[in-house]
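Record pair follows.
FIRST:
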Amino acid sequence: MMERRTFPQIVLILLVSICSCFCNTVEYHIQEQLPENTSIGNVIEDSKMTTVSARSDIRYSLLWQPVQDFAFYFKINERTSSLSTAVVIDRETVCRFMNECTFLLKVSAKSSLDSFFQTIPVTIFIEDVNDNRPTFAKPNVELPISEGVLVGTSFTIEGATDEDTSEKFSLKLYELEPKSSPFNIQFVKNLDGSSIIKLLVSQELDREKVAHYDLTIIAKDGGEPPLTGTLSLNVTITDINDNYPKFNATIFNVTVNEDKPVGSVVVRVTATDFDEGKNGEVRYKLSPHQSTDILESFSINETSGEITIAKILVYYFGRVYTLIIEAYDLSDQPLTSQTFVTVNVLDTGNSSPEINVNLLPSPDAAKISEYANIGAVVAHVAVTDDDTGRNGEVTCSLQSNWFGLQRYDVNEYKVIVSKSLDRELRESHILTVECHDNGSPPLSSSSSFEVQILDENDNPPRFTQQVYYTSIAENSEVGTSITKVEAFDLDIGVNKQISYLVDTANTNYVIIDSLTGTVIANRRFDREKESNITIKILAVDKGNPSLTGSTVVIVTILDQNDEKPKFDTSDIRLWIKENLAAGSEVGRLSATDADQGKNAILNFSLHLDYKGVVPFTVFADGLIIAERSLDREKQDVYYLKVVATDNGDPKLSTVANTTIFVEDDNDNWPEIHFPKEGNDTLYVPYLTSPGSVVGSILATDSDSGENCKLKFEFGDGNASNIFSINSVTGDIYLQLQISNPQHISKTFLVKVHVSDMGMVPKSSVATLKVVVVSQNGTTLPSQETERQNFLIAVCVATITIVLSAGIIVTICILRRLDSRKRTNNYDKRNRAKLDSMFDKGPSVFSVPSNSSLYSERKHKETTFLAENGNLKEAMLNGEITDAQVGHEVLCLEPLYPGDVPSKIDDAPSETSHDSGTGDSGKGGSDEDLQNTSLNRVRSQNSEESGLPFRQWSYSSQQSQPTQLQSFSPRYQQPSSSSSSQSSFVPQQKIIPFSFKKVPPYPKTSRTLNVSLGMGPPHYDDDSSKSSGFQSFDGSLSVEGVKMDVSSDIVV
């Protein structure tokens, strides 16, 4: 065998080979285990280097090898080059598992005087010595082998190991003793000196012959004589079930008397099995493949094999019982043997009759239709008795309600139908014919047989329930299983096979599986249209003719939440009295849901958009209550939305618009506008005709309906007999002519009572002063009165002149100062910034000061004069500072469009009706008015405009710099031809407008809502034309502070 070499050894061998070509290589062969200092040879002499050996200055040494140093094992004499062993060399240690053991050395020869130096390769071969014997890991091995193993089967055993690995002294062979055993041996050597043994079965094994083998395996190496090692192998042959039980006799014969009692032992059989364990345990039984009479007459003990009598034996002439007995072992796959046991019965007395029954129509079974008539034959009975005399006389009988036994001949009978048959009541009858002889004592025997009743199709199918109750969810898919019906038929065979059908009137609802009876939806059901349906199901058998049964399936359609709630009306209107306490009931919502169950349970609620907006609460049951007391005069109707939601899954809801009207409660007293304090005098001309209307009482009531209908009456006074009043209109009539001149300038006092028509009327009282004047409309003043009037006129004229002069001087001074500032303070940066701001179209107006806003004028007119361009110029010229603009500003915001002429007419002065330039007291000429005019709009109460009531939104903020933003009417840029004008005239629109403060800093700003209520218009002049200056008296309410103001509108 090739020995595996390591890489360093290969390298050394190559080096030695190369050196041997050019150098004198020295080889030595020595045995292992030589003692120390054993001489090997003289290197110089053996190398034939005579020139070197003659020199005395040469010194010798072993060179160290870089790959594997073997110099450790040897030493050399440095003067003589004698080579010897340094230690005892064990080949199995230094060359383990190698066939050849080679040491490669180098001996150096150098001069101690000159430069001579040379190396001599030395190869030492270590020869093996047979110093190791084969050894086994274990001295004994137990090996079980089945007796059923095939010839040639091998069993692996761990072999011996020999430390000597040379080809000569390594393991060579194995021997098996005794050689007569049914086994052979083979082995395989491994590289490491170990081996594997294979024990081969060379012959068939039989445990019943040899159950155990004691073998010895001997291992030998290649020495002379060889060294050996032994292994004891104990082979046990294991059993298989390969032996049948064996009876001790091939046949057993026994004779017994017929009167031997039950339980008596007839004979005992014995069998043996040569296997071991459960394979050798034997049990006994009667073979099942023999007549029933034998199995019923005898029994056997399975362990002992004793055969005993199971029932009384009856003697018959020539009759012999032949039993088959089986013996079997208890293996997983048992083996069985059989033997015969013959039992002869001896006649020892009277024997019972023997009955022979022939069944009709076949010998296998008696069958007859359930429609068979009475007297029909089902069987023939023949009786025999081998006894003689009275012992042989036999009488037979049959006990049955449906069949009878009729004598046919001597000892012969026929079995007939004695009553109508019904297979459904009883499908078979077990009949027993009993016969007894006349012996003493009499002996009897019986024979039983079965009569099967043949079916006729005389029963229709019947359902397990007369009515089936089931349900299905509405909107279920077509093909959904609804229920399963089941019918049965008392008949059998083809008469019992049933097919299911749906009555033709119900096929549009369901279909049915004809075999299983599964009822399947044939449409989608809508519970709101049909809450339940009744279906007729038929069951038809396959008899000839076929019979039919029916049942009814009542299907309840289960509700699904597929219907939204519906309010009783789409427009819900409710009424509630004003002034009721918080929590008062407004009404109750009502809605329905076509679903049912929880899907129809409704909860009401207020729409989310109205929660916190309207003063009402909607409870889940639909009750609506007021969260606070209501005031019809503040708001008489509320619009809201309510929601009805069901409890389905998912929930469905419906929204309804609801209007709640606040019904009037007579909680307001009539308000008398005339007469009232400061305006309570009525002037009646002297000599007015009786019956004339001299005036009217003006009164209103904030309530509605009957509560706001007023009744006018006069109370006590010195003129109650002179004047009368219309109780409905309040018109005052003169009843008596005032013809006495003394009554001129006389004042009459009349108490005026104004009451409403409420259930509990409320009334107000005022005093009317009636002054009689002359025909020209004046009273006859006294001298003192004339003097006082003169003084008042002089004072008023003087004050007017002084104020007018002061105003004119002030205007001139301000105009001169403004002109200088416009020239000197022109700033390009401010102009560019304002250009970008005003190009977007805002019109910004400074709020006038309180002095200018409420200046004393005849009608307290307030004029805001500003224009886009002029305000811009004013800011650039320093007339309006950024602080002023940022402190209080009003923004003009159009509400809806309407055109007006581009030129604004000057309002006429209070003293003239000229159409030219007039001094209206507003501090400007026509040019000033055109350059600083304010868009003004007509009031709602103006008969010519028809525009809605005007509201101003006034905003105030902290005095911080801000960028102004506003919305203004559209302006038209002037043409190039009007360049001489200082600014363009805006194309004004007659539109309602509101002034808004645009807060630049939301965190520090505060917004005030300003409402300006306008009274009826009056004109500064008497022209009543559309062009003029109108004044509107009213009040300005700012966060609860009420101020009387008036506004002027340019029309």
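SECOND:
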Amino acid sequence: MAEQQITQGAIEAMFCDPARAAQFPVLVMQCLHIKTLENKGPGGPGAGRYRIVLSDIRNFVQCVLATQVNHVMHEGQLQRGSIVRVRQYQAQPVKGKNIVILLDLEVITSLGTLEKIGEPKSMEFTSTEQQTTAAAATATGGTSFYGAKPEPAQESKVEVQRQLASRTGGLGGGGGGGGGTSASTIYPIEAVSPYANKWTIKARVTSKSEIRTWHKASGPGKLFSVNLLDESGEIRATGFNNEVDQFYDMLHEGSVYFISTPCKVQLAKKQFSNLPNDYELMFDRDTVIEKADDQSSVPQVRYNFCNIQELQEVEKDATVDLVGVLKETNAVDQIVSKTTQKPYDKRELVLVDDTGYSVRVTIWGKTATEFDASPESIIAFKGMRVSDFGGRSLSLLSSGTMAIDPDIPEAHKLKGWYDASGRNNTFATHSNMSSVGAATGRSDEFKTVGQIKSENLGMDQPEYFMVKGTIVHIKHENFAYPACLSENCSKKVTDMGNGTWRCEKCNITHERPQWRYILSIDVSDHTGHAWLSCFDDTARVIMGMSADELTELNASSEASFNAAFDAANCRKLVFRCRAKMDTFGEQPRVRSQVMSVGPMDYKSEGNKLAELIKQMGPTPRLPIASTIRAQALSSSTAPSLPTSPLCDITDSLQMDQLASVLLDFPPAGGLADDERYHLAVKSHIHKVDKLAVTQNFNPAAAQLLDHVHPGVNSISHLRLLIAARAANSIPQADMLAKVSIFLSTFDARQIRYAGKAFSVVLDWLVSGSLFPASVAVELLTTALLRLDPTGSVLTSHHVALAKLAFTTDNVEPALPLLEKNIVFYPGAKGLQESRPLCGLDLPPAAYITTQSGLTSQLSSSDVLQYDLLRGLCFIQRRAWSQALDALERVITYPTKDNNSCSKIMVEAHNKWILVGLLLNGKTPALPAITSPGPQKAFTALGKPYQSIGKAFEDNTAEMLNAEFASVGAQFFSEENNLNLMRLVMQHYQRWQILNLRQIYTKISLEQIRKRTQSAETAAPLATEAEMEKLVHQMIDEGMLSGVIERPADGPAYLSFLAPDEELSEAEFAQKMSSTAQRLKALEPLVKATNERLGTSRDYVRFLVGQQKKEKDGRRDYELTFLNQVEDEDLMTGVVAGF
């Protein structure tokens, strides 16, 4: 069956006959091989690229997955032998080979995975004609590009290679390191990423900025940027300082260039770029740039037009492209910046289009002064920012472009419309929008917390919203920072240790700082909770005092300090927020910042609710059981019922019977003791089980859900959820909301008795059938912590959560659970309880068991895999201390005999060594409790890592570099440790700098440069400026406690600051309070462990023996109970997995 569906001959058509290939809208092929490409970028684990081999039975070809289809790998859909549909691709020859970039791919899961079909042969070039045809192949089904001029004859491969080869001594900088063979790979811009090693792009400069300069305390600087375009997309490139002198005059707008590595690829800074690309380029002194002979094969410009009428739907500060007819041109005007006092030229234009709307456009600088377009010209703008001033207006960004009377279809269409009828039309404006939300200038929509998360606000662009919520927690730690006292400066100042504070920006010293808030608050509503960030203005409203006043309280009275936070808690307020994608530790995340905050207007809210009730009035809802019964008894005729499948009295009475059973637990008066509660809940479950098998239960579940409270009648609500989903009687959006509310509000005491049904709902989250991964991870974390607030018992759901969080790159929502320490395992000895499951003082390990259904049976591999995944999650966040602890749990896992060792343990051990080097600058020592079998395996299989650790500690950078080279990058790549290994190489020099603090309190940057070496180059850094940049990075990341000082009459030097252990009295008190809270949280775990050990004969014998030795003065303090216990007794309840 699969063989008949495959598009035979498709690969040959791609390269030799594109016209024939275009006849196949979708190509079906088989995947023969999958390989992860070497990850050299900062993306971290799981962020790599993938190469696969596809076959059409006749031929096979190498392919590269574009980043937008990497999800088929991350989700485990694409496997060796899978049958796939290729919907969009780009075929091109690279270094004599045929390569296909897959832009849209779908796995046909129904066909499964098969053995290789047929005997396909490699698709190679057979003639110069085929080469030329291959070069001309374009992305089938792809996006069209405006302004691309047809090329009469494509460059042959020989010509391209000749141009690339000539670049070794061409116009690039340095030694022309990007030329030759390494630069002969022509990449589309879409494929350029931090994970590609050597590449060349052929792109047109669509925009070139002016040179911008700055003057800071660290010295002057300058930069420029260009926007680059090819058939696949756009990317921004920036040059700093020396690269400005090197490349600025070389690059011209509208010209096509070859640009080759070395050229740094990094995450795009969206605040400076309007291009739809996640990455941007940074020119290097050795970057190779050469003008292409052929200037016509690359598109002129790429537009994504929005018409003028649609601007009212576009959010403020969004970036758009627009084409319109020039209706009015105003004279050049000049404004003066309030902050810099610099003058700026501007000109205002009025554009119209065929939607009947007009808009005001502002252009700036040289574009404004040199503007000479005549009225009624067609103008296309790329990169304009949307403002809500006067309703809607536009401003051309510095990175934007303007084309007058462009040769594109949209321009011709507008010209025809304007000449035919538009010239005499009247045009509407967006000015009526300005009255909406007068206080803020925008109409921000109210959102619930659940909507904020489910709609992924802020993921693509900044979004504003209003939310009504209650503050449930305010973080006490780092609530404020010391800021500069100068006007219009709020930069952080540095404590110089002599009673003064220095601002690097203003280059002045103050006797004291002004403390400013950086508050994190947890806001909750009925749909969930979310963390919001508050800066000084909004935090003052919340706290009711300035940050200076709160800091004084912190230093003088802990009770008053805590009381200030308690007073701010539990207040219901209205927050106006902005959700925006931010980058922290090279990991993108959405941050919601409070822009303004105010009290709830209860009168207005009451009126809104009353209006909603009126609107809902004409649509009667199903009465609850007691209402139906009262109507039936008080009337001689049947009560008026909703028009629905249950509209007759018989069906209503059936609904009454269902509701009466579902709502009878818990009883209104409550239950006096645990034993009565236990009997009542068991009886209730029995009744609900009998109801669930009746024919009326599933059809009625959707209506009954609205009347069974998820937090009060949790067992009933849970069974109704499962029934409603089985009947498919609730729209997807409503089901999502109901599941979210249930998992955030359920009664954990009741759910102890409904573990199997509860596990079914949790499995929905893991399967991805209901929620996107980011929401599923957060809900799963919330549910598990609600069930067990201590997070001390490992369950099968923990393992699934860790796997989902890591593989989908949604680690942050899972951290509240992943950071908990596992103490117990289901079924462990000594945890069985005779008391009822509902006991409020019952330890979690007593009710989270396989018998209760709240977890499946765990194997040894599950336990190891969970801690390994925890370690990988912490590695991804560069939380080295937590990662080391998690990996250490894996390598110290007890084994059955002296010869067994899991492969997972070996993998964890190797990562553990590298993490130890990053955290402590030395190889960690194996804990004494490590079993003999794993110790032997680690010694035998971890030699490459042990040799790296030894070279890191004992030898020079040259020796470490040589050790890495002798092992080989390929080895570390195959073990998925290449990124960690590269971080170790980078941190070698950092630890050299840190070790200098043992000798010096102050040392010049030039001396640091001479005394330390980079393990990557086995040589010192080239300049003092590079060393200063490295030291600044270490200080910013918190790795180094120090400050760089620049005296007027001497060289710059680094001062190592006093260690953190020299705490002030207030800081010491705060630390002690935090320690006391942690000890209090450990109290129930210690109590449960003591109870468990108290029933162990082995432990009692151990204590008796230790007491006898202590009387005789022979006690061995290094001998612990753990050393004397048989390995297999340690993990009872866990099935052996290796």
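COMMENT: The radius of gyration is 34 Å.
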